[in-house]
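User: Please predict structures.

Assistant: First:
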Amino acid sequence: MQIKFTEEQLNNIDKSLLVQMFLNMQDQLEMLTKETHALNEKMQLMMEQLVLSKNNRFGRSSERMQDTYQISFMEVDGMIVFFNEAEAECNLDMEEPDDLEVKPTRKQKTKGKREEDIKGLDTIRVDHYMTDDELISEFGENGWKQLPDAISKKYHFVPAKVEIEEHHVGVYASKNDERIVKAKHPKSLLHGSLVSASIAAAIINGKYVNACPLNRMEQEFERYGLNINRKNMANWMIRIGESHLAVLYDYLHEKLYDYHVIQADETPVIVNRDGREAGAKSYMWVYRSGHMYTDKQIVLYEYQRTRNASHPRAFLKDYSGVCVTDGYQVYHTVEKELEDLTIAGCWVHARRRFDEALKTIPSSAQKNSEAYIIMKQIQAIYREEGKLKELSSDERLKQRQAIIKPLVDALFVYLKQKEASVPSKGKLRDGFTYILNQEKYLKVFLTDGDVPIDNNAAERAIRGFCIGKKNWQVIDTINGAKASAIIYSIAETAKANNLKPYEYFEYLLTELPEHQDDTDRSFLEKLLPWSPELPEHIRKAKRS
C-alpha cells in the first residue's frame, strides 16, 4: 500500500525521520538507476546480436569501407591525432574458418569378390621380363628355365575410364640350384591391394582438393562400372598416409624450421570415435611458411584432440623465428617459454571486431561513431601497407618505419584517449579490449620486413579443409584424422607451389614405395614441390 503525505503532515514531521526518508529514497533511486543501466546494456547487447545475426544471413561479408579519402594526422599538444575522418580502401577477402572422415569397419572378405569387382573392366597387359643378357649374367649360358608368370593386378585410373593393369612379371629359376629371380617391376603401393598410384591420386584429388565426400566418389566410380566403396577408399587413405606420405610430411616439418617467419591457425573438427562423448571438439592446427616468401612454400596440418598450449609448444619447440597468429593466448604462453620465438599479431582480427561494432549501428549514425573512425584508421594502415608488396624485405621495413609506424602510433594514442568513454559491454568494448591487449604483438610487423601485417595466409591455407568438412561433417577415427592432416598438408603445399595435385600425388605414390626401405632420406629432396627434378607435366602452366 502506497503512503502519501500532505504538505501539512510533512511540515509537522520530525526532522530526523524526514532525513531518513530522503536517504532511503535516494538509495532506491540509485538502485533503480543501476538496474535501468544494466537493462539498457542487456538490451543493447541483444540488439547487437540481432543485427549481427541478420547481417551474417543477408548482409555483405566484406569489411570494405565505402569512402576512399586519404587519411591525415597531425600533432596537437605533443600528441599525434587523426583529424579528417581518415579513410582507406582495403580488399581483404576474409572468412573465418571451422571440421574429417571414415575408417572402415573390418568385414570378412567374400571369396571371389575381387574378381567379381573387376569383372567387365578392360585389362592392359604390362610385361616385365628380363633380357637374354640379364638372364645370362644372372644364371649363366642356358642356366635358367621359364616358370609361369607372377601376375598382380592393379587399378589403373584414367579420367572417365577405369582399366585393369595386369602386371606379368617374369619369374626365373636356376637349373643348378633353388634360386628364383623375378624381373624388375614396380613395388605395390599397398601389399595385397588393387589400389594403384593413379586411383589413389584420384581419390585424394577428389576428397582433399575438391572437397568431394567419399560417398559421392563411390557413386561416380559406379558410373564407370567400378565397384569401390567408401570404406575401401577410407582405408586406403589411412594406410597410404601412414605408410608413404608421412615420411614426406616429417621432412617438410623439418624444412619449415628454416623459415624466419611462419604463420599458424587452428579450426575445430569433430572426430566420431576418439574416446570421448559424442560431439566433443578436436582441432586441426595449421602452420605455414610466411606469406612474404613466394617460393618454396610449406603448409602443414596437425590433428590434436584439444586446443591447449602443449600442441604449439611441441610443434614449435625447435623453431627460432617469428610466428604470426590470430591473438589466441596459448601462443603468447609458448612465446614466454621459448627464448627464440616471437609472436606477431593479426590486424585483420583487430579490424573485424570494429567492423562488427559498426554493423550494430544504424547506417544514418555510422559516420559519427567511434567504430567508423577506428575502422578508417586501420584501413589507412592497410592502404599504405598494400603499396609495399613488391619491395624487398629491407626496403619494406624502411617504408613501414617511415610511413606506417606513425599511423599505428597515432591509432593507439587515439584508442587510449577514447577508452574511458567506451561502454563497459558490447562489440565496441570488445574491439577496444582486443586491440589494446594485443598492442605489443600488432606492432611486431613494424620491426621486420618479412613479417606480414595479418594472418590471412594461414586462414587461406586452412580454408580447403574447412570447405571439405562442411561436406563430410565429421572424421570417423583418430587414425583418419591424422592421415587426413598428412594428406591435406601435401595437397595444400602442392597448390601453394603451383603444382597439379593429382599429377603430383600420382608421382609421389609411384616413387615413394620404391624407397620404403631406405634409411637415407636424401631421396626426398627430389620429391619436394619445388624440386627441379619433378616431371614438367606436374607443374601448372604459368599464366602470362
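Second:
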Amino acid sequence: MADAFAQELQFPGIQDGEYQRLLEAQLVAGSGELGRIVAAVDEMVLVGQFRAVMRKQQILVDDVLSVHILRRIGAKGRPDIQVVQRILIAACQAHDRGAKVVVFNKGGSSYHTGTNLCGGLFTACGSRMQKADPKIKDDWKAFADDIIAYGEHMSLKEPVYGFTKHSGEAFDWLEDHGLAAHHLEPYAGHTNVRAHRQDSFKGRDYIDVLEKEIKARKIEVHHRMPVVKMYFDEAANRVVGVQCGREGNFINCRAKMGIVMATGGITGTPESLDRWVPSVAGKGVAIGGEGNDGSAMMVAVRDVGTPLSHMQYIASYPCGIVVNGRSGPYCRWWFITGQGGILINKNGARFITEREGICHVTPKLAGNPDGCHYVLADQATWERTLKKIKLSALVGLPSWSEERVLAEFKKQENLWKCDTLEELSKESGVSLEGLKKQIEIWNKAVETKVDNQFGRTDQEWQIGAGPYYMIRMFPWNNLSCGGVRVTEEFQVLGWDMKPVNGFYAAGETVAGVHGAFYCGGNACGFAHTSGFMAGKYVTGFKETKEA
C-alpha cells in the first residue's frame, strides 16, 4: 500500500531504495478508513544533504521530514479541516461551507464531555427567544461587561467579544436543528435575562442535536484517537496536520485549510487539576469530560509553540458531594436557599450570604472546618424546593436518579434526613449548639427583615419544624479557565502573539473568556458559540458587517 501510494505521488528525484529508508524513518501508521502509510519527499531535496543539515542544526530528522512531507504532498482523501476533538458544531459549520471534515475524539463517544455533565444552561444574547420578550433589553457589549466584571476584570476581551457577539446566532442554530424544550431564566452574575435553560436540566440535549447533524452530513468521527502530534510549518507559520491515535494505532492526517482544537480543559483527572491549580490541589471533586487532562494543550505548546494563559483559574462550584475518592455528584443548593434554606459550616453557623455567586462561595470554604459546608432546610422548605425542581435535578448530576438520592439519605453519610436537630447533630457531627443559635438568629432576621450577619434582604421563611434535611458539600472543580490565547475570530496565537495560520480553538481549550471566576451558563454558551464560529473562520469566513 505504501509503495503504491508513493508511486502515485510521482516524485522522480528519489531513488527506489530511498522510499523504504524514508518509510523506516518516517512511518505513518494508520487504520480504518483513513489508514494509509504515507511517505514522500520533494524531488528537489537531496536526502543526504538534507540529513547532513539536520544533524548540523541538531534537529530531529523525523520531525522535519514530517512537516516537509505534509506540506508538500497533495494526498488524496485528506480532509480540508480537522476538528480535534469534541466541538461537533464546528465540524457542522465547516462542512456546510464546503469543507471536507474529519473529527478525532479522545473520548469513547461524543457524550464523554463537559457538556454532558452540565445542567443545560446556555447564556446567549440576541437569540430569537430573548428578542421575543419585550421586557428584555440586552446587547452584546452589556453581556461582555457582565462577564468581565464577574471575572474580576481578568478576562481577555478577544474571546469574550467573539462569544457575546455571536452567542444568539449559535443558539438559534441549535434551536433550528431540533433542540429539545427550553426556557429563559435569570442567573447570578448576569444583569439581564439571557440564560437559556433546557427543561430537562441536561447538557446532553445539545449533544443530541449535534450527533444527529454530524450523522446527517456523514462526517467521519474517530473516537479513542487523541492528538499526539501537530505538524507545524515554521516557515509558513501554519499548522498543516496532526497525528492522532494510541497504542500503536495512529493516523497522520493533513489539513488543507486548518484544524480546530477543542480538546477541553484540565478538570478530567485529579492529577491534571492539582498540577495546574494549586489552590484546589487535593480538594473536593475533580469532574470533567474524559480526557480533559491538558495533554492536547501541551502538544500545541511542544509542536507549535503556543503559550498557555490563565491556567491558575478554576471554576470551582461549592456543590460537590464526595462519595468515591475525588468523584461525586452535584447539588444545586441555590434552589433550596431560594426557598428558605441556609448555608452553614460544621459549627452550625452561616458563613456567607446565600445570594452570593456560586464561584465566589468556594474561596470561603477554605476558612470553614474541614473545608466544606452544608445546606440546611426544614420540611416546608424542602417541599417548596421540590415544587420548583425534580429531586434528580436538585441532587444527581451527572448520574444519580431519584432512587439513588433517596438511598443516600438513608445512608446518613453526606445527605441527612432527621426528625430533630439533636439527631441531625449526632449523625452529621455539626454542632447542636451552633445549629440552635443560628436558627434563632435567622428566624429573627426573617421577622425583622434585617440580616445582621450578611445583609440579605429577601429572606421570607423561617426555619421551623422538622424533619430536617442537610447535605454536605465540597468544591466541585468542573471547569478550567486557562488554555491557548486566541483572536476574536478564535485563531490561536503563537509565542509572538501573532495568529498561527490554519490553527483555531474552541471551548474550554481557550484561555481568558471567564477571567478569574466563571459566570454561570457561559461555559456551555462559549463552547458552542466558539465552535460555531471557529468552524466558519477556519474555512476563510469573513464578517461582512459589525455584529
